[in-house]
Specification:
The chain is an alpha/beta fold. Helices cover about 40% and strands about 15% of the residues. It folds into two domains: about 250 residues, Aspartate Aminotransferase, domain 2; about 140 residues, Aspartate Aminotransferase, domain 1 (Alpha-Beta Complex), CATH 3.90.1150.10. The strands form two sheets. The chain has a seven-stranded mixed sheet with strand order 1-7-6-5-4-2-3, with helices on both faces. Strands 8-9-12-11-10 form a five-stranded mixed sheet, with helices on one face. Helix 5 links the parallel strand 2 and strand 3. The longest helix is centred in the C-terminal third of the chain and has 22 residues. The radius of gyration is 21 Å and the shape is globular. It starts with a helix and ends with a helix.
Length: about 400
């Protein structure tokens, strides 16, 4: 039967203590026990249905985690205080001193900085590869490789990772495949394609309002329980806990995600086709001639389109800056980092979210200094939005 992530969420019946339609918010850091032995059992991880301390678990976070696990078709989930917390917690749980990681070269700038600049202090090495070159991925593996890391749709070049093929390579080597699915929630379900761990920045499409920072780790129950272990669990000991108030807010927003992803995808497809018609180099995996189109098409849940992300190449950063400033003044959207917002957001990746990536790496991965990444919003009249964009292109003498 076809996996329907929206239905999976809706199938979770969650009620508050008083029959409220939204689960009650747990405004408590610690929890009481009627018997001392139950507290001991909770510390040992043998008590069922008990909460100890909010850094470990709390009902609000658990409601959200259960919904996300249902959406992602994983056994369990852990929610974190940011997307980077989800990524770093996962990697530090899997790796120790002397280990090695194979990662996509094209990845979010913060992730790249963690892998390239932070992990060396623990003597953990990272090999960066073109994740679309499966031979290069396999050749990069070493006896001490502990995981393959990638993004379903890479940031900011929108390359598509072949998750089934990467999973086969990882599992042949006896290691997990970790996939960041932030750009493509509901569009792709990595766990059903062979990914072992799926991480998210919930800040983006899943929450959809840019009013909080949060993350998630979706995986097996064993992995999540290991993260939460009071003795050596990375999440428990480093403490990247999501606030219960934010959990409650994100859970409510999650129930409109399927509608929002459809509209983001429709609007992105329209703008991408219009940019392409002008002759400007446009990156959009929905184009049949895009390198990643066939791979994404075989992986996606077809109800949700090809996603809300597009990118255009204006060659120079000066042209990109001029164009973005004009678009903001014309009411197209906001010159801002992040994505998944109901308004269109745009930024020059090499000068913003990928600025942690050294220039030589940017050139190696094919990142133009004039690349403008768009997170296309939920505009009702996308034709009007294009007219504004087209006027800006003319004012900048780009068409």
């Amino acid at each position: 039967m076809k996996h329907d992530p929206a239905k999976k969420i809706f199938d979770l019946l969650q009620f508050g203590e008083f029959g409220d339609v939204n689960p009650s918010i747990t405004d408590s850091a610690t929890y009481t026990f009627m018997q001392a032995k139950t507290m001991t059992e909770t510390f040992e991880g043998t008590a069922e249905g008990c909460f100890l301390y909010s850094r470990h678990w709390n009902p609000s976070n658990k409601y959200l985690a259960e919904a996300l696990a249902a959406m992602e078709a994983t056994e369990s989930c852990w929610v974190t205080a940011s997307g980077m917390a989800a990524i770093t917690t996962t990697i530090l749980q899997l790796c120790k001193t002397g280990d090695h990681i194979v990662s996509s070269m094209t990845t979010y700038g913060g992730t790249f900085a963690f892998l390239k600049n932070y992990l060396p202090k623990f003597n953990i090495e990272v090999s960066f590869v073109d994740i679309t070159d499966l031979d290069a991925v396999e050749k990069a593996l070493r006896p001490n490789t502990r995981l393959i890391y990638t993004e379903t749709m890479t940031n900011p070049l929108l390359q598509i990772s072949d998750i089934p093929a990467l999973s086969e390579i990882a599992h042949k080597a006896g290691i997990p495949l970790v996939v960041d699915n932030t750009f493509t929630p509901m569009i792709v379900t990595p766990a059903l394609l062979g990914a072992d761990i799926v991480v998210y920045s919930l800040t983006k499409f899943i929450n959809g309002k840019n009013d909080c920072v949060a993350g998630a780790i979706c995986a097996t129950a064993d992995f999540i329980n290991a993260l939460a272990n009071v003795n050596d669990g990375t999440a428990m000991l480093l403490g990247p806990t999501l606030d219960p108030l934010r959990s409650s807010s994100i859970l409510k927003n999650l129930h409109t995600l399927h509608i929002r992803m459809q509209k983001h995808s429709q609007n992105a497809a329209y703008l991408a086709s219009k940019f392409k018609e002008t002759g400007i180099r446009t990156i959009y995996p929905g184009f049949e001639d895009d390198k990643g189109h066939a791979v994404l098409k075989k992986m996606l849940n077809p109800d949700f389109g090809f996603g809300g992300m597009i990118a255009i190449d204006l060659i120079t950063s000066d042209k990109a800056a001029e164009f973005m400033e004009k678009m903001e003044m014309a009411g197209v959207g906001y010159l801002a980092v992040s994505l998944g917002y109901f308004k269109t957001l745009f930024s020059n990746s090499g000068k913003s979210t990928s600025s942690e990536v050294p220039i030589e790496f940017q050139k190696k991965m094919g990142l133009s200094e004039g690349l403008v990444r768009f997170s296309v919003g939920l505009d009702h009249n996308i034709e009007d939005t294009w007219q504004r964009i087209e006027n800006c292109l003319r004012d900048c003498q780009l068409i």
